[in-house]
Amino acid sequence: MKVGLLVIATNKYTSFLQPLISSADNYFLKDQEVTYFVFTNKDLNLQSNRDIINTKVEHKPWPWMTLGRYEIFDNNADLFKNMDYLYYCDADMRFVGDVGTEILGDTVGTFHPGFLGRRGTPEVRWNSTACVHAHESMRYYAGGFNGGSRRGYLDMANTLAKNIRADEENGITAVWHDESHLNRYFCTKPPIVKLDPGYCYPESWDLPFEKRLLALDKDHQEIRS
Ligand code: GAL
Ligand code: GAL
Ligand code: MN
After folding, report:
1. How large is the C-alpha radius of gyration of the chain?
2. Of the bound ligands, which one is closest to the alpha carbon of residue 63?
3. pLDDT at residue 142, as a whole number
4. Whose CA is nearest to atom 11 of ligand 2?
5. What is the CATH number of the domain that holds 10?
6. Residue of the nearest CA to atom 3 in ligand 2?
7. What global pTM score does this model have?
8. How far, in Å, from the CA of 116 to the mean position of ligand 1?
9. Which residue has the higher pLDDT, 79 or 218?
10. Per-residue pLDDT tens over the stretch 148-204
11. DSSP letter string over the chain?
C-alpha cells in the first residue's frame, strides 16, 4: 500500500519534524510504502529512508495553522494522487509503538483520551457549521490523528474546509477549532475504523491503552509565540 503521512509545521513547530519522522520510520506502517508530506514555511533538510515531499505553506497566526489544515489538504489534493491512504498527525507527536495495518480503512478516527465513550466537548452554538445538537448522539474524537483512503480522506477534507470557511464568513470560530468540525463530521458519518486513545496518548498521562502515538507535553504559550 502507498500511504501518505501528512504533517503541518511552521515556525517553532518545525523543531518537532525530524524526531517525528524518525519515529515514524521505526513504527508507522513499517511494511508499507510510506511517503511523508510536510507542509512548512521553512527550508528544512529532513532525513529519512522514505520519500519526503515538502510543500511551502504560509504561516498564519493562531488558530489558523490548526483550523486551516483541511483547506491545505483540499488545495493540495493533486499531490496525493498516487497514494492509496492518507493519514494526518499533529507535528508535536511521537510514534513509540507499532502502528500497523489495523489503521487502514476508508475513514479513520481516534477516540479522544479525555472523553472515551462520552460526548466530550463538541461545538453547541447553532450558528456554527460544527454544531452538534443535544438530541444527536455522538462520541468524541481527537483532532491529532486521523486518516482514510485517499477518496475517503479528501472527501472529508473538502467538506471540513467548506464548513470552516463558512464559519469564518459568519465570524464564528468553533470551540475546539478543526477538532469541533471533525466531530461534527464523524457524528453524521462515524469513521469505519475507530482507534483507541493509544493513538493519541498524552505523554504524561497513564491510560489503560498501549502507547503508540504520543501527544507530547509542551508549553503551548511559548511555542505559539
Ligand atoms: C498544534 C498542532 C501543530 C500545529 C499547531 C498550529 O496543535 O500540534 O501541528 O497545527 O497546532 O498552531
Ligand atoms: C484537551 C486537549 C485539546 C482538546 C480538548 C477538547 O485535553 O488538550 O487539544 O482536544 O481536550 O476538550
Ligand atoms: Mn498538539
Report:
1. 16
2. 1
3. 98
4. 114
5. 3.90.550.10
6. 176
7. 0.94
8. 22
9. 79
10. 999 999 999 999 999 999 999 999 999 999 999 999 999 999 999 999 999 999 999
11. -EEEEEEE--GGGGGGHHHHHHHHHHHBSTTSEEEEEEEESS------SSEEEEEE----TTTHHHHTHHHHHHHTGGGGTT-SEEEEE-SSEEE-S-B-GGG-SSEEEEB-TTSTTS--S----TTSTT---TTS----B-SSEEEEEHHHHHHHHHHHHHHHHHHHHTT---TTHHHHHHHHHHHHS--SEEE-GGGSEETT---SS---EEE----HHHHH-
Count of domains observed in the chain: 1
- Inform me whether the pLDDT recorded for 219 exceeds 90: no
How far, in Å, is the centroid of ligand 1 from the Cα of 135? Answer: 31
Domain residue limits at 132: 2-224
pLDDT value for 220: 73
Ligand positioned closest to the Cα atom of 66? 1
Measured in Å, residue 86 CA sits from the centre of ligand 3 at 19
